[in-house]
Amino acid sequence: MIHPWNRPIWAQLPAFERLAPVLLLTGPGGVGKGSFAVALANALLCRTPTAEREACGTCSPCRLYDSGNHPDFRLLEPASAEEDDDAGEEAPPKGKTGGASRWIRIGAVRDLAGLLVLSPHLAGRKVVVIRPADRLHPNAANALLKVLEEPPAATHFLLVTGQPARLPATVRSRCVRLLFGLPAPEVSIGWLREQGARQPELALAQAGFAPLGALALDRPEYWAARSTLIEEVLGRPDLDPVAAVDRLGADQLPFLVGGLQRWCYDLLALASGGAVRYNPDCAQILHRQSARATKGPLLRFSRELLDVARWLEHPLNARLAAERCLIGYRSAIGGSDA
């Protein structure tokens, strides 16, 4: 699927015969990079593409691709759906390689050998999509580098990532970048309304103006959980961290950290003379808090939240981490540390 705001990028692609063998699709999460890569892979494998160079959907290669059985296509990604580089995108086609891990392991890259040494079976091209490419294990990235140094003929590699700096510089240097950006808010809001979003403006703000992220979180359970977070933590003048964790539940640590990060960003923006970005419906509460909070403690707490966000990928005492976050938040906004 090519989302409407990405159509100009598609139109600017060179003829497939002149397309670089290794593309690096980069940009913020939730803007459709992964779907774009999948659509491009389908079009490259199609026998009779349309005038817009999109897959026809009816030829034999397209039918095989849609069924997940195309012999010239591989999708490498971590097995967990949470690792998808573009939150809220459609499910990828079948045929992916990789184990049940947050990493793309070296074995998945080595398994490409059977595809790469053979000539294309059908339409004259082979395509490998790797997303998110920053999830390549270091050993897997090194193995891939050896392939990218001399890409096989008639083979295209499409690497998708929102964090290209996490890829080795040697891998990035062998890629041609395709840059994706956030669409204009009015474009995103119009699209979200077409998709039936309940609160498109607020969802878009909460998702950092990424439309696919907004569509993914615009559901009743998210709004209910956010209301509880505001009532029990963010807007509460007498915050009790232990009691708040009891009410929220320690299993909500990722949601709590994300909410605190967005809230602190808005407080810092107001303290610096800027505007609320993520929580426009709570502007009054944020203005009151920013009047007594100072930038120094907020910046320190924001850095602490970044560290906690990294820990979320590893086993930890979720309750202890949640209480620590709330104690730090209370201190950052000028509350008592007692």
Structure commentary:
The protein has 338 residues and is of the alpha/beta class. It has three domains: 4-179, P-loop containing nucleotide triphosphate hydrolases (Rossmann fold, 3-Layer(aba) Sandwich); 182-218; 220-332. Helix content is 47%, strand content 8%. The protein has 16 helices and six strands. It has helices spanning 7-11, 33-45, 60-67, 106-110, 113-116, 138-149, 169-172, 185-194, 200-206, 211-217, 220-234, 241-248, 253-271, 283-292, 295-311, 318-332, and strands at residues 22-26, 73-76, 96-97, 126-130, 155-161, 176-179. The protein has a six-stranded parallel beta sheet, covered by helices on one side. Helix 12 packs across helix 16 (318-332), helix 13 runs antiparallel to helix 15 and helix 15 (295-311) runs antiparallel to helix 16. The termini are far apart.
